């Protein structure tokens, strides 16, 4: 990975900062100001606010596709009509071949490093601004640190050892850093975020900007990923007991995905009023007619091209005939394809469209992409409590049943393996939110529920993504390929 010195290339720097200040309207509508130069690009707290808005925007540009395809589709939760008929480019992803992953941008980490470079720049410039409201300064430091930590967390879960750069300016090729070192930095950034962020800001920023609760939640996930379940449980408990979050009513589950609900902890905002509506494969590959009617998806307007769970996959999650109110919200049984072999069920979580949206265009979806929400953290804490090192199964069952009661589903009363029961509940609750592949890796059960069946899949690194040969070559081969894909 080549990182250029902006001091050597001031014109390039000016263009990048210009894009930073003028292209994103995520947090606020930026005022027109003088075109920045390398010397005056970020010189005030108002400039930092706009630069952080760009960091959120860059995150929004990369996460939905990557996490849906590599977190849900790769987990074999979403498939197209057939592996051999009406095949679309995403269809082979669950087979875990290099071609399938690389063809779907699974080898390209560049957009994640765009987010990181922006955060590095913001943190570097904050320290050079003299006139700064202290509360605003702390918030900006916390947000940039949170976004950088979250981005590196995605990187290590996808690719393992990854290049780590914390400098706004660096001209050297950077080799891959061992995961353990990257995790130290992730935790350090999250600690900074926790120490600087408030639990709550203005209602308009609810869930779509980083808070102390969001940092606690990601810290819990980082700890769980590293099997430090004691720490994971502690941070989950902080979110649940000290955070301003509550489960939304059963009658209004769709409000979770409209966004900024009482349940939302951190999510990516999509709002036409701030020019955030964009195409991505979470929205456009899971909804067919009457939501989208155009031919631009390559599927000729046919619902057969959608990525959906098969009936058998749905029945494996939700036992037929057993009450569970999530079924009516998570899925849409309105389809133009009926019959034993062609019946397709849409994922309905992301069906919120722009008011008076033009369904001939795919840039119309206003559902938010959920990164973490209260139900996720309730079940993650249940997983931690039920882990072999803690064994507080009764408390784990109580948390599991909080989620089930909200869905009007039968409560867990014992029997079977509670760890497997919690994992299945996460699959049911968080379907389509990019969690399940990570859940399987964390629990070392990916060979039980995906097409990756190698007995030593974890040790050999079959769970990691390959790295694009273009990235390897451009690094002058300082970056090396993951062992499984050599």
Automatic annotation (TrEMBL):
<keyword id="KW-0472">Membrane</keyword>
<dbReference type="GO" id="GO:0009279">
    <property type="term" value="C:cell outer membrane"/>
</dbReference>
<dbReference type="InterPro" id="IPR011990">
    <property type="entry name" value="TPR-like_helical_dom_sf"/>
</dbReference>
<protein>
    <submittedName>
        <fullName>SusD family protein</fullName>
    </submittedName>
</protein>
<keyword id="KW-0998">Cell outer membrane</keyword>
<dbReference type="Pfam" id="PF07980">
    <property type="entry name" value="SusD_RagB"/>
</dbReference>
<dbReference type="InterPro" id="IPR012944">
    <property type="entry name" value="SusD_RagB_dom"/>
</dbReference>
<dbReference type="Pfam" id="PF14322">
    <property type="entry name" value="SusD-like_3"/>
</dbReference>
<dbReference type="InterPro" id="IPR033985">
    <property type="entry name" value="SusD-like_N"/>
</dbReference>
<comment type="similarity">
    <text>Belongs to the SusD family.</text>
</comment>
<feature type="domain" description="SusD-like N-terminal">
    <location>
        <begin position="39"/>
        <end position="221"/>
    </location>
</feature>
<keyword id="KW-0732">Signal</keyword>
<feature type="domain" description="RagB/SusD">
    <location>
        <begin position="339"/>
        <end position="453"/>
    </location>
</feature>
């Amino acid at each position: 990975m080549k990182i250029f010195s902006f001091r050597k290339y001031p014109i390039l720097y000016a263009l990048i900062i210009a894009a930073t200040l003028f292209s994103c309207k995520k947090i606020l509508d930026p005022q027109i100001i003088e075109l920045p130069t390398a010397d005056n690009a970020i010189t005030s707290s108002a400039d930092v606010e706009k630069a952080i808005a760009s960091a959120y925007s860059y995150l929004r540009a990369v996460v939905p596709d990557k996490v849906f395809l590599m977190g849900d589709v790769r987990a074999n939760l979403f498939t197209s009509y057939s592996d051999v008929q009406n095949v679309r480019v995403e269809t082979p992803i669950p087979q875990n071949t290099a071609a399938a992953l690389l063809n779907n941008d699974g080898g390209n980490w560049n957009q994640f490093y765009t987010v990181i470079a922006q955060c590095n720049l913001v943190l570097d410039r904050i320290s050079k601004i003299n006139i700064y409201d202290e509360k605003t300064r702390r918030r900006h430091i916390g947000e940039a640190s949170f976004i950088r930590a979250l981005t590196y967390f995605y990187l290590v879960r996808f690719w393992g050892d990854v290049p780590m750069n914390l400098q706004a300016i660096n001209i050297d090729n950077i080799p891959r850093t061992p995961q353990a070192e990257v995790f130290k930095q992730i935790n350090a950034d999250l600690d900074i975020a926790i120490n600087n962020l408030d639990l709550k800001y203005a209602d308009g920023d609810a869930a779509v900007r980083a808070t102390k609760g969001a940092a606690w939640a990601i810290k819990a996930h980082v700890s769980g990923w590293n099997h430090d379940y004691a720490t994971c449980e502690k941070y989950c408990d902080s979110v649940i007991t000290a955070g301003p979050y509550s489960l939304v009513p059963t009658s209004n589950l769709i409000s979770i995905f409209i966004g900024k609900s009482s349940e939302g902890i951190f999510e990516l905002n999509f709002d036409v009023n701030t020019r955030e509506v964009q195409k991505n494969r979470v929205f456009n590959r899971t909804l067919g007619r009457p939501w989208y009617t155009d031919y631009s998806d390559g599927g000729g307007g046919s619902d057969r091209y959608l990525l959906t769970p098969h009936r058998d996959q749905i029945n494996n999650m939700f036992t037929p005939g057993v009450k569970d109110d999530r079924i009516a919200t998570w899925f849409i049984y309105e389809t133009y394809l009926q019959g034993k072999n062609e019946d397709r069920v849409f994922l309905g979580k992301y069906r919120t469209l722009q008011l008076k949206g033009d369904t001939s265009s795919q840039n119309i979806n206003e559902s938010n992409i959920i990164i973490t929400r209260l139900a996720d953290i309730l079940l993650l804490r249940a997983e931690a409590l039920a882990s072999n090192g803690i064994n507080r199964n009764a408390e784990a069952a109580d948390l599991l049943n909080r989620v089930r009661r909200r869905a009007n589903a039968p409560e867990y009363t014992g029997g079977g393996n509670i760890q497997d029961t919690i994992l299945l509940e996460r699959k049911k609750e968080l379907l389509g939110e990019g969690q399940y592949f990570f859940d399987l890796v964390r629990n070392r059960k990916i060979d039980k529920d995906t097409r990756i069946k190698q007995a030593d899949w974890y040790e050999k690194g079959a769970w990691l993504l390959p790295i694009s040969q273009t990235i390897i070559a451009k690094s002058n081969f300082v970056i090396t390929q993951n062992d499984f894909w050599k």
